[in-house]
Write a structure and sequence with these properties.
The chain is of the alpha+beta class. Among the domains are: about 1-35, no CATH class; about 35-120, no CATH class. Helices cover about 25% and strands about 10% of the residues. The chain is built from six helices and six strands. It has helices at about 1-5, 30, 50-55, 100-120, 175-180, 185-190; strands at about 15-20, 25, 40, 65, 90, 95. Strands 1-2 form a two-stranded antiparallel ribbon. The chain is flat.
């Protein structure tokens, strides 16, 4: 890998000279995925020259931080928190930041974006239109006319009275309500036949004895 990347240049379309899992790697994918990139190099590095370290800038944009001294100075001299070019601080009049500060700023930006998204989801949207409180009348089907045959009115028939049936007349309604007639008594009054006054046979008059005209 080191030999290929050092001797074989990047193609014009951004394809790297090395493969991963048998697949081609293209440097432009970093920009398509919006992945931020910090390139650090040593100004006095005689192993990886400045031109080689900054070769990706011909294809994509990236942040660049030059460290004084040579190839291993970033891992030795500048790894001390109290050094002039500490990895978690800015140096060179605040123009450059170390790789540790770079990742700390990325974490802070991600946390801020997540907090804003959460607050926006909880608060109601101002652009949301007020919902109408008017009731929506449900659509109803038009009533179909159905023909209904008119039935002939049944003539009222007055029940025939039995000759022996008597009618009980209630002269005072309030008194009738207060003192209801018992059902058994009412039935006997309605159903009991009246006794007709049968004319009495004339009593036979005794025959007058004929008087004897005899003296």
């Amino acid at each position: 890998m080191s030999f290929a990347s050092y001797n074989v240049p990047i193609t014009k379309d951004g394809t790297l000279p090395v493969r991963l899992f048998g697949e081609k790697l293209n440097i432009k994918r970093l920009q398509e995925k919006k992945i931020p990139w910090l390139i650090c190099y040593g100004t006095e590095d005689d192993l990886v020259e400045k031109e080689t370290a900054l070769a990706p800038l011909d294809f994509i944009d990236a942040e660049v931080t030059p460290f004084p001294k040579g190839h291993v100075a970033i891992a030795t001299s500048w790894s001390s928190p109290d050094s002039a070019c500490a990895l978690h601080k800015r140096f060179g009049d605040g123009k450059y930041r170390g790789p540790v500060l770079f990742h700390m700023d990325l974490d802070a930006a991600l946390n801020k974006a997540a907090g804003e998204a959460s607050a926006k989801a909880k608060s109601p949207s101002k652009e949301a239109k007020p919902t109408s409180t008017a009731r929506v009348q449900p659509k109803t089907r038009a009533a179909t006319k159905t023909l209904v045959k008119k039935t002939q009115p049944v003539p009222e028939t007055t029940p025939k009275k039995n000759p022996g049936e008597s009618v009980v007349k209630v002269e005072n309604l309030s008194s009738a309500i207060k003192k209801p007639v018992k059902l058994a008594e009412a039935e006997t009054l309605q159903t009991a036949p009246q006794k007709k006054d049968t004319p009495k046979a004339p009593s036979p008059t005794p025959a007058l004895k004929k008087r004897d005209n005899k003296p």
